[in-house]
């Protein structure tokens, strides 16, 4: 028996999304993966679905990363404890979300193929499960 995770990817760059989906399949097996390039769409997806993990780019269209995360936390369902893994193109520079202002938020440098995000993703899923 295998456990299937439900994951949301919020990123406007299709090639990076496709690569991330391949990495997810490699590390987590078969998963239900939804994707959108728009932050407001992500909030709407979370109203209708419960996710084990959300991957989000720091470069989002629509309402932006901080407001998206805040709006997801305000939805009265199990997404309140869903981890949000922020995929950054570099570890330098400012980002509006910090681990102090939202629960279960982590950052990972985006190095597609290097899979540096995977330990953070596992941590976030285990935090939700506990």
Under CATH, the homologous superfamily reads Response regulator
Task: State the helicity in percent bands.
Answer: 25-40%
Total DSSP helices: 4
Shape: globular
Question: Beta-strand level of the residues, as a percent range?
Answer: 15-25%
Q: Runs with pLDDT <50, length 5+?
A: none
- Provide the number of structural domains: 1
CATH architecture group name: 3-Layer(aba) Sandwich
The total count of strands amounts to: 5
User: Structural class of the secondary elements?
Assistant: alpha/beta
Please give the alpha-carbon distance between the first and last residues. 21 Å
Please tell me how large the radius of gyration is.
13 Å
- What series of H and E elements makes up the topology? EHEHEHEEH
What spatial order of strands do you see in the largest sheet? Answer: 2-1-3-4-5
CATH class: Alpha Beta
Mean pLDDT: 81
Named CATH topology: Rossmann fold
The main pleated sheet reads as:
5 strands, parallel
Structural overview:
This protein is of the alpha/beta class and 130 residues long. It has one domain: Response regulator (Rossmann fold). It is built from four helices and five strands, in the order βαβαβαββα. Strands 2-1-3-4-5 form a five-stranded parallel sheet. Strand 3, helix 3 and strand 4 form a beta-alpha-beta unit. The longest helix has 15 residues. The two termini are 21 Å apart. The relative contact order is 0.18. The model has no long low-confidence stretch (mean pLDDT 81).
